[in-house]
Design brief:
The protein is of the alpha+beta class and 259 residues long. The protein has helices spanning 4-17, 46-56, 69-76, 104-133, 153-173, 200-211, 221-226; strands at 24-31, 36-42, 94-101, 137-141, 146-150, 181-188, 217-220, 238-240, 249-253. Mean pLDDT is 83; it is low at 192-197.
């Protein structure tokens, strides 16, 4: 039953007393549908941050996660800025996207270190261009792939389709330097797992990437549902046994006709 205005009022009360605790509440995100609020705060300790909440309005956080500011901005974007007390809503839900070059070790053996680096740079350029075009945000380079996040599941899948299309075109013109890439996509609330900024949604996307066919895209059930009504088509569901997941995970390949 908490509204955006309620959270805005709480944030204003935090700001009113924060100086007395050597704390600075920078911003917040509120997801009304899930009734989750996330505060971004600079504080000398977790206890000091909690003390402000306790004294200002009594809403004690369920969890505190220490983060590097640069990493947080790369993941969620720049913290929203707004007038004190202004109601603000944003979803904590993110779509996570992984690429992985198929047979990167064999590629190095075939082309040599320098040749493999040329191919890797082509991969990075193609993926980063597609991310820019589909509002994706690169989180990190994994050595033979890229991890990224999106606020839109359909844009994540559209980005994956664009990436695979680029690689298919490149393979047709340069067979020697061609590569195949796997892509896995999942969705969830990455901030919900204690001590891990990314959590289960990232782990699932990485496992789906590893399970995708060369040149293919494999998405979670949540991503498939979020893309309902979009001009994207998926193959029949697969129930996969994935390392680290106690139960089979339902996943959907993106049909080749999208590529």
């Amino acid at each position: 039953g908490v509204s955006a205005a309620d959270v805005a009022d709480a944030h204003r009360l935090d700001e009113a007393i924060q100086e007395g605790h050597d704390v600075r509440y920078l911003s917040y995100w509120f997801d009304y549908q899930r009734q989750h609020a996330f505060c971004l705060v600079e504080a000398p300790s977790a206890e000091a941050a909690v003390d402000v909440h306790r004294a200002a309005h009594g809403l004690i956080p369920l969890d505190i996660i220490e983060v590097e500011p640069d990493e947080l901005e790369r993941f969620l974007g720049s913290p929203p800025r707004f007038a004190s007390g202004t109601a603000y809503e944003a979803s904590a839900f993110r779509t996570i996207f992984f690429t992985d070059i198929v047979g990167s070790t064999e590629l190095t053996q075939r082309l040599g270190d320098e040749g493999a680096m040329v191919v890797l740079r082509r991969h990075d350029e193609a993926v980063r261009q597609a991310l820019d075009e589909h509002d994706g945000r690169e989180i990190k380079h994994t050595g033979d792939g890229i991890m990224a996040s999106f606020t839109s599941a359909s844009k994540a899948v559209g980005c994956a389709v664009a990436v695979q299309g680029r690689f298919a075109e490149a393979s047709a013109t340069d067979a020697e330097g061609s590569m195949q890439v796997r892509i896995g996509i999942s969705a969830g609330e990455p901030l919900t797992e204690k001590g891990d900024l990314f959590g289960t949604a990232v782990q699932l996307a990485a496992r789906l990437c590893a399970s995708a066919e060369p040149g293919g895209i494999l998405v979670s059930h949540a991503v498939r549902e979020l893309c309902a009504g979009k001009t994207l088509t998926f193959d029949a569901a697969k129930d996969l046994e994935l390392r680290g997941f106690a139960e089979p995970v339902r996943a959907y390949p993106v049909l080749a006709k999208n590529l």
